[in-house]
Amino acid sequence: MIRTGEQYRDSIRDGRRVWIDGERVADVTRHRMFQPLVDIRARIYDMAHEEQFRPVMTYADEHGHTNPIANRLPTTQQDWHDKRRAVETVLDEIGGVVTRVGDETVGEVWSLYDGQDVLNEANPRFAENIRRHVQLVIDRDPFHVSANTDPKGDRSKPMPASSSAAPNMKPQRPMRTRPSPNQPSPTGATLNCPTMLLVSFATSARPT
Known about the structure:
This protein is mostly helical. It has one domain (5-201): Orthogonal Bundle (4-hydroxybutyryl-coa dehydratase, domain 1), CATH 1.10.3140.10. The chain has 7 helices and 6 strands. Strands 1-2 form a two-stranded antiparallel ribbon. Strands 3-4 form a two-stranded antiparallel ribbon. Residues 164-184 and 189-208 have low confidence and may be disordered.
């Protein structure tokens, strides 16, 4: 599916608690600090519905459903060319000011999709979750961004003054940085996430 700009705005008017400079934000779509970015993302959603941009911004899947090209799981070189053309079209339209337009972190999920054999070594449910997540992104057209958090450790203990790293961090088993030679990458994406990927939706995943 493809959402409209107004559906996107409605999805983030959901009662979420947002604060900036000590101020509780009543409506992130209208606040002076957020509205310019919200308007740009809404514009990108609306572009997919306009005759001028629709052929570049969308594709029809095997069921005849129209979906955003940015969220398509790439399996061919042409898929990547199509994505590049869509990104260039977006940046030309919005003036190139905003560079994170909602597709950069779904690419990291594609990397995990390529690394399903590695995930299965830990737990087959991980690979199943990645496949489901990829399809959910296609079906619901969220604004897909990352959520960054501080390094995890034992927060009951003080941070050493001489170290900026969190104490008592548990070592992680490193993941392979490439699919094995006899298992070529289906998407062409690089598996470059050394430990774990935390993904969040900047919008409600439910279309309104």
